[in-house]
Amino acid sequence: MLQLIPIPNIPIVQPGDDLTGLILHALQTNDISLQTNDIVVIAQKIVSKAEDCFVDLRTVMPSAQAIELAAEIDKPAAYIEVILWDTAEIIRKRKGLLIVQHKLGFISANAGIDQSNVGSDQNIVLRLPVDPDLSARTIRQGLEEGLSEKSEPAPPVLIIDSHGRAWREGTVGVTIGLSGLAPVQDLTGQPDMFGYCLQHTQVGLTDQIAAAASLLMGQAAEACPVVVVRGLPFRLNESAKASDVLRPKESDLFR
What we know:
Elements: E1 3-6, H1 19-29, E2 38-43, H2 44-50, E3 54-56, H3 64-73, H4 77-85, E4 87-94, E5 97-102, E6 107-109, E7 124-126, H5 132-143, E8 157-165, E9 168-181, E10 185-186, E11 202-203, H6 205-217, E12 226-230, E13 236-237
Parallel strand pairs: 2-8
Antiparallel strand pairs: 1-12, 2-12, 3-7, 4-5, 5-6, 8-9, 9-13, 10-11
Helix pairs in contact: 1-5, 3-4
C-alpha cells in the first residue's frame, strides 16, 4: 500500500544547520523508522537555506544587461542580476517574468530565485542549491544511520521544487536533485492489459513522486518540508542524475 508520511516538527532551517541531523531527530521524535523501501522527499528550500544560498539584493551590483531587462519586465535590477547568475539562456520574457534555462539544465521561471518563505526581509532572496544531486547524496549518506537494518542501502533521496508548466496553469512538484533513483522509468516493450506491446512509454517517476509529496508540503505556511514515500516499488540506481530527465535540445520541438 502506498503511503505518504509527512515528517512534522522540523524547525526553521538556518545557514549551516545539519539538515540530515534535523531530519533524523524529527523522525525519532515522531517515532518513524526509515525502511529500505522508503523514498525521502525534501523541499529544495530547506536545502538552500542550510547551504546558505541567501542573497541580499542590497549588496548586488546590477550589470548593464540586468538594468535593461529590469526596465523591460518591470522587476528590480538587482533581482534580475541574481537570476542571470544562474541562467544559461533566456527562453521567454514578459512583464514580471523571465523564463530561463537554468545552468542546471531545466527550464523554470526566474531561475528558481525565490522570496516566499525566505524571511520577513523582502530584500533577501534564495537561490537553488549549487549541486542538488550532491546535496541529495550527502543527505542520503547521513540518513544511513536512521535505518533499522544497517546492512541495507539507504533509501533514495529526492530534492524537489515547484515549477510551472507550459500551456497549463498551476505549479507542480518536480525533482531537481536525487540519489539512488532513476528519474525516468522506461516501459517500452512491456504489454498493456490487452497484450499490446508498449512502443514509446516513458514515465517521469521521480516527478510523479515529487508532485504527490508536494501535496503535503504545500506552497504557503504548511511547514512540512520532508515527506517519506512508502510502498512504491522501485529499483535502486546509484548512477542516476536529476538531469537524466531533461529532453535534449535537438529533440525539443517547442523551443
